[in-house]
Amino acid sequence: ADLDDADLDDVDLDDEDDDEDEDDDEDDVDLDDEDDEDDEDEAQAAMSDASVLVIPDVVGARAARLEARLAELGSVIVAFSGGIDSAFLAVTAARVLGPRASGVTGDSASYPEHHRQQALGVARDFALAHEIVPTWELEREGYRANAGDRCFHCKTELYGTLAELARARGFAAVADGSNADDRGDYRPGRQAARDHGVVSPLD
Q1: Can you state the angle between helices 5-73 and 84-97, rounded to 10 degrees?
Q2: Under 8 Å between Cβ of 94 and 101
Q3: Closest C-alpha among 116, 97, 69, 83 to residue 171
Q4: How do residues 5-15 score in pLDDT, each as one tens digit?
């Protein structure tokens, strides 16, 4: 049967209504997506603000404790291997104590050349008081045995040498770069440090 004009109008209107409903649905989806994005942006901004507020306080507090500990010691020889921990300690000690801080590197046939050059480079770049002294761990039977406690014998030689140097030159303490991250590891060298009264300001 043929459709009259009224029927055509009804069909057109219904189609337009459906299109409007679809548009409304799309608008709703877009708005929801925008809201979600806004929420994510706000959350990220809040996290960023928290980082800015909290992290510097923690770092600043730790730095202040380290500086106070070094100032309390008065003078110190830092067992300076050239690694990041002992380098950080040596640089901080030099800033706090000036000429009353010195970095000393033990040198022997067992000490890699690239470590020696690294220590020299850090000392030069930061204008540290620094010297290299000989150590003789290879003459120790316990070290030559190459057992699990070899590091104990190596550090015993090193810390014994530095302790004698500190006494001879009037330095109050020998310090190493051991820190809290080292506590859970098996490190026989820590026992050697305790045996010689070595302090660990980073711990």
Answers
A1: 60
A2: yes
A3: 97
A4: 444 344 443 44
